[in-house]
Design a protein that fits this description.
Organism: Megasphaera hexanoica
Keywords: Ligase, Membrane, Transmembrane, Transmembrane helix
GO molecular function: ligase activity
Subcellular location: Membrane
Number of domains: 2
Strand content: under 5%
Shape: globular
Structural class: mainly alpha
Low-confidence stretches: 11-17
Protein name: O-antigen ligase family protein
Largest sheet: none
Radius of gyration: 23 Å
Helix content: over 70%
Length: 405
């Protein structure tokens, strides 16, 4: 009997020994980065990578806990989590007292728990900062390749718009507006990084060309919205690169002006008469104001406002019959009432305030990522896009980790 027990112990050591040597923290970061990259290309594979990242993170955290390690959070991160909890609690009533509680609550868990794990993993993961930098660069490089593929697709198919590596133009727009600032800020900043800064410039140009080829106007506006902040700080860091960047922007603007389809697309951004993509949204927003007045406190429930709008509030002026309001602020006010809207705006303002020290490159990256995200949010319900929100948390997490270093 004792021999059998001894043999079992020896066998367990042979099995557990190699497992203990596995670096689950590195596997977690690899899986998370792959998930963020491919989520627009294939959501099934992206979710699979994401699930593995969560599993590896759980194992690594448990091993650290068993070893007696204490997890530390800075005061800044603790305050940020508290503000996020406030935001989540302000939305919660609209999930519980929804017109369809089961559906709304499942979406609530997805929005505020499952996607937020991206930031939690990046904050708590015990891994060197060089690995975080490489993960961020890998994602930037992937989006640059996506941009080149989108550009090639536009030329080959001669279609007015191109998809690139995946589907969903508005998802692509939000992702581009969120990650583009990182590439150009890493190039123009004074710090030295693990790879030549010129690669960052090349990546940023490819991302912009992809945005132009996609024909998604919200991505153009999102990119332009961050440029004043980049140029302002870039002039302090490197006047030469500041003027070089200005010249590149002028050239890109010239290409858009000289290309009739692109010029027409750019002009249509402010067209709310003949362009029904814009006009119908405005009409839906007008009806949304009435809906908020009718149910102002907790709204109709997460993702229920669009259904009520089509049934009771849509006017003939909305020619398409929009199923949702294509605006994160309007959608939140309708779905979650003034409580949810206050929670959303509080969290956005605090996020921008947290990234207010622009003289640090990674802080500026975090700030501009949020600017790009909230600007695209004027054109679509970005908070409801899993790929867009996970990208935001990924860039936010990288910025916080690398700035603290």
């Amino acid at each position: 009997m004792e021999l059998n027990n001894l043999a079992f112990v020896i066998w367990m050591k042979k099995v557990v020994g190699p497992i203990n040597k596995i670096k689950f923290n590195h596997l977690c970061l690899i899986m998370l980065t792959l998930a963020i990259c491919v989520q627009r290309l294939t959501i099934a594979v992206g979710n699979m990578f994401y699930a593995f990242a969560i599993i590896f993170f759980t194992i690594d955290t448990y091993r650290r806990y068993r070893s007696g390690e204490h997890l530390f959070l800075s005061k800044q991160i603790k305050r940020y989590f508290l503000v996020y909890i406030f935001f989540a609690l302000m939305i919660l009533p609209s999930a519980i007292f929804s017109l369809n509680p089961g559906y709304s609550f499942s979406k609530y868990v997805d929005y505020f728990v499952l996607r937020f794990i991206v930031l939690i993993m990046l904050i708590f993961l015990k891994i060197d900062n060089e690995a975080i930098k490489k993960a961020l660069f890998f994602f930037i490089a992937f989006m640059a390749i996506d941009g080149l593929v989108t550009l090639a697709e536009r030329f080959i198919t001669q279609a007015p718009r191109a998809q690139g590596l995946g589907d969903g133009w508005l998802r692509h727009a939000s992702i581009v507006a969120t990650i583009f600032p990182a590439s150009i800020i890493l190039w123009i900043s004074q710090r030295k990084y693990f790879l030549s800064k010129n690669w960052m410039l090349l990546c940023s140009v490819c991302i912009v060309l992809g945005a132009i080829a996609s024909g998604t106007r919200s991505s153009w506006v999102g990119i332009l919205s961050v440029m004043p902040f980049v140029l302002y700080q870039g002039a302090k860091w490197s006047p030469k690169k500041y003027f070089a960047l200005l010249a590149i922007l002028i050239c890109i603007a010239g290409v858009i002006v000289m290309t009739p389809p692109l010029h027409q697309r750019a002009v249509s951004i402010v067209n709310i008469t003949t362009d029904r993509s814009n006009g119908d949204r405005v009409e839906a927003w007008k009806s949304a104001a009435v809906m908020v007045q009718d149910k102002p406190v907790i709204g109709y429930g997460i993702l229920q406002g669009g259904k009520v709008y089509l049934q009771n509030y849509r006017t003939a002026a909305d020619t398409q019959g929009l199923g949702h309001f294509h605006n994160i602020y309007v959608q939140t006010a309708v779905d979650s009432g003034l409580l949810g809207f206050i929670g959303l705006m509080t969290f956005i303002v605090y996020s921008l305030w947290m990234f207010r020290r622009w003289n640090y490159p990674y802080i500026l990256i975090g700030f501009c990522a949020w600017i790009g995200f909230i600007i695209v949010g004027f054109f679509d319900y970005t908070w409801g896009m899993s790929a867009a929100v996970k990208t935001l948390w990924f860039v936010t997490g990288c910025s916080l980790r690398l700035h603290d270093a």
